[in-house]
């Protein structure tokens, strides 16, 4: 009888130990994960236009401009979730990559993308010539640029301006080509700019 009681105690102890082990391992980890997925669902970050970090108000355009870096990363321009220029679209090149956008009553229409300097711009449109001369710099200044006057060889520059802009554009970044600070040999690091541009820039 004494042996049978000891066996029962051992079995009870083993059973309790097994239950504790299951509770410790399965419910502490697996059940926690299962319950979160079942009741709360997997957490998904909302996707914003152009892959930006936040959405834009109703009367604003979402944009993202990437300068590119040497031959490592190509430049790209996204406007209102439409990629106008990129390596994938195969419409970029060295030098100035320019996209003209016509905003009209809350909508936008990409007129044309120019991956290279043009000698024969479309009618009623002024575009840079092959060289960044004083006339070209003056034009970008009229669009609101603050840095175009200091642009040099192989500088990285991203800019969003508007025709008839009375003030300086807040959407501009510039980094000088400097052999001591360049991230890539002969080229500065990539510049990326995203934000929300008002439909009418004053």
TrEMBL record:
Per the record, GO CC terms?
A: extracellular region
| Pfam families in UniProt | ILEI
Q: Which PROSITE patterns match?
A: GG_LECTIN (PS52031)
Cited InterPro entries: FAM3, ILEI/PANDER_dom
Q: Name one GO molecular function term.
A: carbohydrate binding
Location comes to:
Secreted
Q: Where are the transmembrane segments?
A: 6-27
Q: What is this protein called?
A: FAM3 metabolism regulating signaling molecule D
List each copy of the ILEI/PANDER domain by range: 129-164
Instruction: Please state which protein family the record places this protein in.
Output: Belongs to the FAM3 family.
Major localization listed first in the record, in broad terms: secreted
- UniProt keywords, alphabetically: Disulfide bond, Lectin, Membrane, Secreted, Signal, Transmembrane, Transmembrane helix
Claim: Transmembrane helix is one of the keywords in the record: yes
């Amino acid at each position: 009888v004494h042996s049978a009681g000891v066996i029962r105690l051992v079995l009870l102890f083993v059973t309790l130990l097994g239950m504790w082990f299951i509770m410790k391992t399965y419910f502490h980890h697996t059940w926690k994960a299962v319950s979160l997925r079942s009741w709360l669902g997997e957490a998904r970050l909302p996707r914003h236009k152009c892959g930006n970090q936040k959405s834009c108000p109703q009367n604003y355009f979402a944009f993202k401009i990437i300068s590119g870096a040497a031959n490592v990363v190509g430049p790209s321009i996204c406007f209102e979730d439409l990629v106008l220029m990129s390596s994938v679209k195969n419409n970029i090149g060295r030098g100035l990559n320019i996209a003209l956008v016509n905003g009209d009553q809350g909508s936008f229409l990409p007129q044309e993308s120019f991956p290279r300097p043009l000698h024969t711009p479309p009618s009623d449109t002024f575009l840079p010539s092959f060289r960044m001369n004083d006339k070209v710099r003056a034009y970008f200044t009229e669009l609101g640029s603050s840095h175009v006057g200091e642009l040099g060889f192989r500088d990285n520059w991203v800019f969003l301006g508007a025709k008839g802009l009375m003030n300086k554009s807040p959407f501009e970044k510039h980094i000088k080509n400097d052999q001591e600070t360049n991230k890539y040999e002969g080229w500065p690091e990539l510049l990326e700019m995203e934000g929300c541009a008002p439909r009418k820039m004053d």
